[in-house]
Every structure is written in structure tokens, then in C-alpha cells.
């Protein structure tokens, strides 16, 4: 009887241990999955809500224009030692709320080698990002400029008329759209390219 009772008890204990181990593994795997998903989910949250000054991406122009103007200022920056001149073609515009407008930013590579960059952006005040609708934009697209090369980059946007219904924003008269270009890593280091060219010249001379 003792052995008979002891064996089921051990089986139950082993079974319970397996269940606990499975739960722990599932929890650990879930935490890893959440960590990998955190960044894209946060970006999606920002795009949907405009949180942190993230603008909205739309596919069509505004169909409603208010008899009320707002001023949009344009800001441009570079970071990470990117050797570019980067600026808006105009510093600000005054526009009817809901009107679709086009502006442009200008970039020029002041270095003697090809360089690549990508722009991030934000809107101030941050809450206005949910009502800043961009139809066309160069943001988050890799841009490559040859030595001395330049590029005009259009931005087509409008301010959602619903912005006047938001108590915190109804008295906002100015919105700032800011872009920052940062460098992208080159496919191959300049030193490696120079060594390769020197090796080729050596082989030709031999």
C-alpha cells in the first residue's frame, strides 16, 4: 500500500513540475516577443495617435478648408557629422486650415565623397501631430548625394480642420515641422575601397 500511494504522489509532483516549467517557458517567450514588438508597436501607436509629434500619413488631399489661418514653421537639422547643407526653401507659411500645400527642403553634399542620409521628423506642439497630415514626404527614405550633389525634396501636407475642435489646440496659431537628417553607414569603408583599388593597380602593373 505504501509503495502504491508513493508512486502516484511522485507522478503528480513530476506532472506539476512539468506544468510549472511550461508556464515559465511560455512567460519567458512572451516577454522576448513583447521586447521585439515594442518598437514597431510604439511607432504604430505614435502614427495613429500623433503622440510625440508624429505626423499622419494620408493618401488624398483635404476636402474641407476653413476660413481660418495657421502658420507652419519649417526647421532643418543634421546630426552624426553628416556633411550636408540642409534647409527648408522657406522658413514659414501662413495657410488656411485644411488647405493642401506643397513646400520643399534642400540638401547638398559638401563632401568629396558620396554620402547617404535618412530624415526623422516631429511636430511641435506634440499634440498637433495627430492633425498634421502628410500626403508626400521624404522622411524615412534613404537619400544618397554624390560629391557636391544637391536635391530638392517636396513635402505635401495639410492641417486637419478638426484641430479647431480640440480644446488644447484651438488657440494654437503656429505649428513647427522639424526634420533631422542623420548619416547611414556606407556599404564599404573608404579605406577598404582604397586598398582594393591599390591592389588592382598592383596586379595591372605586374
What does this structure look like?
- The chain has 206 residues and is an alpha+beta fold.
- The protein has 2 domains: 1-49; 56-183, Ctag/Cox11 (Ctag/Cox11 (Pfam 04442), Sandwich), CATH 2.60.370.10.
- Helix content is 31%, strand content 33%.
- It has helices at 2-49, 190-205; strands at 56-57, 69-78, 84-88, 92-96, 101-109, 115-124, 132-136, 143-145, 150-159, 174-183.
- A 5-stranded mixed sheet has the order 1-7-9-5-3. Strands 4-2-10-6-8 form a 5-stranded mixed sheet, with no helix packed on it.
- It is flat.
Q: What is the CA-CA span between the terminal residues?
A: 93 Å
Calculate the mean pLDDT score and round it: 77
In CATH, what is the class of the largest domain? Mainly Beta
Stretches where pLDDT falls below 50 for ≥5 residues?
Answer: 30-53, 187-206
The total beta strand count reads 10
Structural class: alpha+beta
Number of helices: 2
Q: Indicate how many domains the architecture comprises.
A: 2
Please outline the major beta sheet.
Answer: 5 strands, mixed
Q: Please identify which CATH superfamily of the largest domain we are dealing with.
A: Ctag/Cox11
Q: Numbering strands along the chain, what is their spatial order in the largest sheet? A: 1-7-9-5-3
Question: TL;DR of this structure?
Answer:
With 206 residues, this protein is α+β, with helices and mostly antiparallel strands.
Q: What's the arrangement of secondary structure elements?
A:
Blueprint: H1 2-49, E1 56-57, E2 69-78, E3 84-88, E4 92-96, E5 101-109, E6 115-124, E7 132-136, E8 143-145, E9 150-159, E10 174-183, H2 190-205
Parallel strand pairs: 1-7, 2-10
Antiparallel strand pairs: 2-4, 3-5, 5-9, 6-8, 6-10, 7-9
Amino acid at each position: 500500500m505504501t509503495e502504491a500511494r508513493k508512486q502516484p504522489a511522485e507522478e503528480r509532483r513530476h506532472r506539476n513540475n512539468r506544468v510549472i516549467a511550461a508556464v515559465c517557458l511560455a512567460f519567458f517567450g512572451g516577454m522576448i516577443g513583447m521586447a521585439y514588438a515594442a518598437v514597431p508597436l510604439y511607432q504604430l501607436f505614435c502614427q495613429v495617435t500623433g503622440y510625440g509629434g508624429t505626423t499622419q500619413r494620408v493618401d488624398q488631399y483635404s476636402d474641407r478648408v476653413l476660413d481660418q489661418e495657421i502658420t507652419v514653421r519649417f526647421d532643418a537639422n543634421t546630426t552624426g557629422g553628416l556633411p550636408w547643407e540642409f534647409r527648408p526653401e522657406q522658413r514659414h507659411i501662413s495657410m488656411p486650415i485644411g488647405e493642401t500645400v506643397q513646400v520643399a527642403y534642400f540638401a547638398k553634399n559638401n563632401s568629396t565623397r558620396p554620402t547617404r542620409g535618412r530624415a526623422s521628423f516631429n511636430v511641435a506642439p506634440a499634440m498637433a501631430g495627430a492633425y498634421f497630415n502628410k500626403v508626400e514626404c521624404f522622411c524615412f527614405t534613404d537619400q544618397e548625394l554624390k560629391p557636391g550633389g544637391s536635391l530638392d525634396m517636396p513635402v505635401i501636407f495639410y492641417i486637419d480642420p478638426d484641430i479647431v475642435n480640440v480644446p488644447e489646440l484651438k488657440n494654437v496659431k503656429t505649428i513647427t515641422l522639424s526634420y533631422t537628417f542623420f548619416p547611414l553607414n556606407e556599404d564599404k569603408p573608404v579605406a577598404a575601397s582604397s586598398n582594393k583599388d591599390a591592389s588592382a593597380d598592383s596586379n595591372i602593373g605586374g
